[in-house]
Write a structure and sequence with these properties.
Layout: H1 2-22, E1 25-32, H2 39-49, E2 54-60, E3 65-71, H3 77-87, E4 91-97
Antiparallel strand pairs: 1-3, 1-4, 2-3
Helix pairs in contact: 2-3
The structure holds copper (II) ion (CU).
Residues 36-37, 39-40 line the site of copper (II) ion (CU).
Keywords: Metal-binding, Signal
GO molecular function: metal ion binding
Protein name: Periplasmic mercuric ion binding protein
Length: 98
């Protein structure tokens, strides 16, 4: 019974691995306006990092730019821009690398 359950657990994980093998990490660069103090880029970064499939988010208040890497099967540049915009910092996509 124990072996059967273990096998079933491994088997059920197989599609997750398969999906992961085809998923790609992509990078989007966004222009983020409205950041006025040191807390703003932290809030922007936090909101991006909370999104499913987002790996990294680097936000620079001096250049008003955010660079976000994400899993293309889970997230889109448009959705990331929308999330940051909804937070109160209008974000526009300046570059999306494959
Ligand atoms: Cu601020």
């Amino acid at each position: 019974m124990g072996k059967t359950l273990l096998f079933a657990a491994l088997f059920s994980m197989a599609p997750v691995y398969a999906q992961h093998a085809f998923a790609q990490e992509k990078t989007v660069t966004l222009h983020v306006s409205g950041m006025t103090c040191g807390t703003c880029p932290i809030s922007v970064r936090h909101s991006a990092m909370q999104m499913k499939g987002v790996h990294t988010a680097i936000v620079n208040i001096d250049t008003a730019m955010a660079t976000v890497t994400y899993e293309d099967s889970e997230q889109s540049p448009q959705a990331i821009a929308q999330t940051i915009t909804k937070l109160g910092y209008p974000a526009t996509i300046t570059d999306a690398k494959q």
